[in-house]
Amino acid sequence: MLDLEGTELTPAEREMLLHPAAGGVILFSRNFQSPAQVCRLISEIHELRNPALLIAVDQEGGRVQRFREGFTRLPPAAWFGELYETDKKHAHDVTHETGWLMATELRSVGVDFSFAPVLDLGGDLSQVIGDRAFSHRPAVVAELAQAWRHGANEAGMATVGKHFPGHGGVQEDSHHELPVDRRSMDEIMADLLPFDRMISYGLEAIMPAHVIYPQVAPELAGFSPYWLKEILRGRFRFQGAIFSDDLSMAAADSAGDYGDRALAALDAGCDMVLVCNNPKGAAQVLERLKGYKDPVAQMRLMRMHGHAASTHDEMRLNPRWKAAVHMVGEFDETLSLSLDL
């Protein structure tokens, strides 16, 4: 899965996306100007290949929302957790409709899926997770994440739980540093509960963490056969797709050059690797994977294509969309004080 420089495809990017190893595109804020513009861009990408390349974006809500102008401002996951503490039923309903709203708006412009929901546990330790987590309580995370997933599924979108087996137990940000979680497997088990439950509910995809858990395995989780094959595929019987986190993140440096990183992630059990913000690294990965084939991974990834989309204009006439926007409007800036946003 590759990224783009701007709001239009360049000739070089067209050539890159026609490479047999290219499988998808992740979009960022720099690729977005308006719903109409990004819809044209995505249509152009989809028309390049058959089957079409997957289109993804990070649209969690809160501080991680790539598309803003013309899209509803989504609350951070922690807000739903706050609602849960006072009214469980209302929190469940709002989370469900927000998942539907997020997915409906993205599907209206052609995005296949968002890398959400976050299944990490909240708390004071991990600033990179922070308000991106639903709660510090594992069972609450699982319950609200499933409500979010149900809503997204109703809008024709699969979901991606991240960051397996849990990023909430480390202070370092894997975008810039190499996080090391020195807890034992017994201590990590609480972090695994949201993933275990979501898998049993039918979660479609998972993204592993760029974190090392040295008491359990020596490699980053996304490069670890133990975490991905023995635990995720074996113990938890996960049958969905596994997406690596971005191979350009600083934490991934320990796995070698870009080609080595891609092969290590795929050999460990990933079905698709992400290479973002580094065109030379992306070219290196494409060259290294030129003859790579994994029919089972391709079947898993086919399930990530979106379904049942209305146009952006049709969506805005839908009474459910209007009601969901109103429901999300309960989010009040004053809550940011209690959430430390």
Give the secondary structure arrangement, pairings included:
Layout: H1 11-17, E1 24-27, H2 35-46, E2 54-57, E3 59-61, E4 64-65, H3 77-86, H4 88-107, E5 113-114, H5 138-154, E6 160-164, H6 185-201, E7 205-208, H7 225-235, E8 241-246, H8 258-268, E9 272-274, H9 279-288, H10 295-302, H11 312-317, H12 319-328, H13 335-339
Parallel strand pairs: 1-2, 2-5, 6-7, 7-8, 8-9
Antiparallel strand pairs: 3-4
Q: Any key phrases for this structure?
A:
three-stranded parallel β-sheet; TIM Barrel; alpha/beta; 10% strand
Walkthrough of the structure:
- The chain is of the alpha/beta class.
- It has helices spanning 11-17, 35-46, 77-86, 88-107, 138-154, 185-201, 225-235, 258-268, 279-288, 295-302, 312-317, 319-328, 335-339, and strands at 24-27, 54-57, 59-61, 64-65, 113-114, 160-164, 205-208, 241-246, 272-274.
- It has a single domain (11-37, 49-331), classed as Alpha-Beta Barrel (TIM Barrel).
- 42% of the residues lie in helices and 10% in strands.
- The strands form three sheets. The protein has a four-stranded parallel β-sheet. The protein has a three-stranded parallel β-sheet with strand order 1-2-5, with helices on one face.
- Residues 333-341 have low confidence and may be disordered.
